[in-house]
Design brief:
Helices cover about 15% and strands about 35% of the residues. By secondary structure, it is mainly β. Among the domains are: about 110 residues, Immunoglobulin-like (Sandwich), CATH 2.60.40; about 100 residues, Sandwich (Immunoglobulin-like), CATH 2.60.40.10. The chain has a 6-stranded mixed sheet, with no helix packed on it. Strands 13, 15, 16, 19, 20 and 21 form a 6-stranded mixed sheet that branches. The protein has a 4-stranded antiparallel sheet with strand order 12-14-18-17, with no helix packed on it. Strand 5 and strand 6 form a beta hairpin. The protein is elongated, with a radius of gyration of 48 Å. The N terminus and C terminus are likely disordered. It is found in: Cell junction, Tight junction; Cell membrane.
């Protein structure tokens, strides 16, 4: 009777799609989403909860952008992890010196030919955190009181994307200036996602050194401090305009002098020959020009 009951239970389980663990291979992992810092080691766990086959076939695949490639195949490490990984019992894989290119999905597959359920797989997502590099900061050298301006900060290497913080004279600026008693009258706003620091109306108190810090879970980096001057009047603009006018004046003067040296403006003098023949009056005969004495043209009767 006992054997009959066991057989009946087995038939019932199999008919319902349930296979006892002793009749098939079953896998599990400690974490399906794994984070690792760049250049550090990370272990992806593929634990075999149940199996009857003594020498199961174990394979690992890396799936990036939907394209699979072998990581562990025919009892050896393959692909771009060939010299940076090893298989650990029972089926875990240890990756050394992780890089940002290791960010992908990894699938552990176990085939057990002697088991009723002869195959199982598990998918693990690995994301490698990358520390930000020194961000590129843009700070205006001089601004005028009451005008608007923007300071910029950008970093493209960090993963996940970093958050940005700004510092003024080595003190961190709060996200909302209203939270600081000495900044309550300031008109700035900070975008922690894009790194922008905008002033709607610059005050004299806003002058000083500024630097930006980019930070994520892997670390942080900051740019060197840059000075921003705040003037009551636009001294820089006045200087540039005056300098431009001076350049124009010098160029114009030089052009005139050069033209004078080449004689472009030289007038004709009084000593130069400039004869104009007088016009002759119609109907008057003055005789030949070469006659030297008076000639009688009529006779006189006494």
């Amino acid at each position: 009777m006992a054997i009959a009951r066991l057989v009946a239970c087995f038939v019932l389980y199999t008919s319902l799609g349930h296979i006892p663990s002793s009749f098939g291979v079953i896998l599990r992992t400690t974490d399906k989403t794994v984070w690792a810092n760049e250049f550090e080691s990370i272990e992806l766990t593929c634990l075999i909860e149940s199996i009857s086959t003594n020498n199961p076939r174990i394979e690992w695949k890396k799936i990036k952008n939907g394209v699979p490639s072998y990581v562990y195949f025919q009892n050896r490490i393959a692909g771009d992890l060939e010299h940076r990984a090893q298989l650990r019992e029972p089926a875990n894989i240890l990756i050394f010196n992780t890089t940002r290119s290791d960010t992908a999905e990894y699938r552990c597959e176990v085939a057990a030919i002697d088991d009723q359920r002869d195959f199982d797989e598990i998918l693990i997502s690995l994301a490698v955190r990358v520390k930000p590099v020194v961000p590129r900061c843009s700070v205006p050298e001089a601004v005028t009181v009451g005008t608007s301006t923007e300071l910029r900060c950008l970093e493209n290497e960090g993963f996940p994307a970093p958050q940005y913080r700004w510092f003024h004279n080595n003190e961190e600026l709060p996200q909302d200036p209203k939270n600081s008693p000495k900044l309550v009258n300031s008109s700035y706003s900070i975008n922690p996602d894009t790194g922008g620091l905008k002033f709607r109306r610059v005050r004299k108190e806003d002058a000083g050194e500024y630097y930006c810090q980019a930070k994520n879970d892997a670390g942080h980096a900051q740019c060197p401090p840059l000075m921003m001057e705040v003037y009551d009047v636009d001294i820089l603009g006045i200087f540039l305009k005056s300098f431009g006018a001076l350049i124009v004046f010098v160029c114009l003067t030089g052009s005139i002098c050069h033209s004078l040296r080449r004689g472009c403006f030289h007038k004709k003098g009084h000593n130069e020959n400039n004869y104009n023949w007088p016009a002759q009056t119609d109907g008057v005969d003055y005789g030949d020009a070469d006659e030297g004495h008076f000639r009688h043209k009529s006779s006189f009767i006494i």
